[in-house]
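Sample log: Adenylate kinase.
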Amino acid sequence: MPCNIILFGAPGSGKGTISDLLVAEYGFTHLSVGSLLRDEVQRRTPLGLQCKAIMAEGNLIPDDLVVDIVYKFLTQPNAVQTGVLLDGFPRTLQQAKAIAKRGFKFDLMLVLSVDGQKLLQRCLSRRVDPVTQKIYNLQCDPPPPEVIDRLQIRSDDTKERHDHRMMIYNKQKNELVTFYKDIAIIVDANGSIRRVYKSLRRQVKHVIRANNKKKVFLPSANL
C-alpha cells in the first residue's frame, strides 16, 4: 500500500536533495507547495487567480486556500496510487488540523535536524542557477564546473533573513511535531547526504512494510 510522508526541515537542511532520492527510489509523487501554487497561477485556475490577486497585494496565501490546493492534489488518482512525499506542507498547525479534518492521514513525518550554525553556513553558501533554477550549495552540494560562472546569490540568503526564517521555523516545528507526535521521527541531518539518507531510509522502509501488512488479500475465484 502507498504511504504518505511529510518531509520537514529548516531552510538548508537538505530537503530538496533528500526528496529527489526518495522519489527516485520509491516512486512517490512529490508535492512542493511552492511549485503547486505557481502551477495554479500559470494555468489561471480559479484557485490560481485567487492566489495571484493575494500575492499581488504582498500578502501570504491564507491557510484555508493552501489546504484547498493541496487537498485537490492529494486526491488525484496518481497521488493516491503512488503515495505522496510532501515538502513544505503543512507549514502551520492550522494547515495540519484542516487537512486532518478532511480525513487525510499521513504515515510518517521525517524531521531533518541540523545545528543552527551549520544551517547558517549552508544558507550563506547557497547559489542558484538562473538558467535551470536549480539550487546548489558550495559546501555540501557543489555545482558542476560548467555552471559555476553563472550562479547567483539569492536576495534572501543573508544572515538577517535566515535568522528571521529560523524564528518562524522553530515555532512551526514545535507545534507540528507535537501534533504529529505519533508519527514524527527526528533525523540527525548534520552529516553527509549519504549518511542522512541511509538513516531515514530505514524509517521509510519500516512504514512501507507496516502498510503492506495491512493489505487484505481476497481469495481467488478459482480456488
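Observation: The CA atoms of residues 43 and 158 lie 33 Å apart.
Observation: Residues 4-214 form a domain with the Rossmann fold fold (CATH 3.40.50.300).
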